[in-house]
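Ticket #4471: structure output looks truncated?

Reporter: J.K.
Steps to reproduce: submitted the chain below (585 residues) through the standard prediction queue, then opened the result file.
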Amino acid sequence: MTDSIRIANCSGFYGDRLSAAAEMVNDGPIDVLTGDWLAELTMLILARTQAKRPNGGYARSFVTQMEQVMATCMEKNIKVVSNAGGLDPASCAEAVAEVAEKFGLTPSIAYIEGDNILQRLPELADSGIDFKHMDTGEEITDLESYISANAYLGCWGIVEALNKGADIVITGRVTDAAVVCGPAAWHHKWTKDNWDALAGAVVAGHVIECGTQATGGNYSFFTEVDGMSRTGFPWADIAADGSSIIGKHDGTGGEVSIGTVTSQLLYEIGSPSYLGPDVTARFDTVELEQLSPDRVQIEKAKGEPPPETLKVSMNKLGGFRTDMSIALTGLDIEEKAKLVEEAFWKACPHEPVDFESVKTKVVRTDKYDPATNEEAVALWKITLKDSDERKVGRAIFNSVNELGLATIPGMFGVGGGGNARPFGVHWPALIPSDLVPQHVIFREGKRTMVESHISTDSFTVDSVDEKIEKIDFGSTTKAPLGLITGARSGDKTGNANLGVFTRTEEAWIWLDNFLTTDKFQELLPETADLKVDRYRLPKIYSLNFVVHGLLEEGVAASTRQDSQAKSFGEWLRARVVDLPERFIG
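Returned output as attached by the reporter:
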């Protein structure tokens, strides 16, 4: 059996802490430096960047980090695996090579292509690929409008690059966990059907992919954690059987605990069958153990064959939008909102039906008997969208401005301005895996094509679960649900997920009984008219809810205040319910 491989994260998103790479390389022993730069929204941002600046469709911050750590990585034989190539891995590799030349270094640099299928869309459509929306089943009608289209590739291109001697591997759109699974599979010489080991590496990759979210960041019980003003980044020691130990460098802030690991396991997942291009990882088989402070073992992950399709992330410009808010202060909030809306439409040069999308809402942030001016304020919010920039531009601002002295008392605007801004629409689809091979390219000219692994075995399709048998937990008292539960939530295309967990088995049994889909929708009325799936993960005392359509056409198009559903779980925790007194003492 080979020794474990330590894979460290230095980025959870494009814009994360620049110094993290140096911290991980300099502050403790690691074998591989990796991170995640690509979200669905990031691909849209990079597409717009590339349109303005050809060869600029990659994460420049990664190149900056390479300037900081490349020499040390070469000295310590630390491999680097990054998805920062975005839409242009070749240009990213060229920029990294310029860094090497600047410092007199000669790393072997490989990059991986094949995920970018934008130019292939017409040919693939002609061959019968329908690119239906993978969540709604809606037919695509404007294939030519998309400005990015990338399939989520797996880890085997990374394995091939490392096998051929690469020191630095730069990918485009691979799965977030692939940059961890690839080095683990390479180090341990796993075969493509070593399902359990691959599943374990995917689980470890999912835990560390978002950086400090595994070490206390965005953690519900953050008040119990020391050093939160400067959280350390995580690493995973992955063993030959796929089990792992999640940790962080000693002396860094935050913590690695069963709670922080559970939180991240629940982040942006759907059913317990976590589908990927390399393996279907069964998150409901995972077991956690706190080995020591800041060391959590993950084991017993089971893997099944992957589906025969890959997810394709597609983005287009949806048009233009303007968002404006009017303060409604003090008494008669509903009446003030009604008058503002009526007066706005009389001032506006267009009727509501003239716009492609109109959304208005009243946000009741005001308090009874307000002690401050701010506590007296609610908001009337309007979002208008249209393909005509002029229609949702200055004319809307002028229409609101007209109301300043003519309608409600105490009126003032909150944010907004005279200019419309573009927004994007995300479209997820599926494509057969065998149509998207990976191309491994070394800067010195070597090229290899890696075919997708197609298994003849089947994978499990999860059913949506409800509750177990009713149990009497005794007397209750009114209290926030978050006194005994943690949560983690996020975006999944136009959907949102909300994972909720307890820290004891008894509390989990109560939660499983209490938090049915109906109760969930009652506590979060915004979900009442939406489809909600509920899944159970009893081994980590967790439930996961997937709310379909909450984020509309995706993060860039969403009209919610929290367009990525990051705070969704904390809203649930704040709801007051009948909690068993035995749990809160």
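Triage note (M.O.): checked the attachment and the full token line is present. The chain has three domains: 5-306+428-450, 317-419, 476-584.
Status: closed, working as intended.
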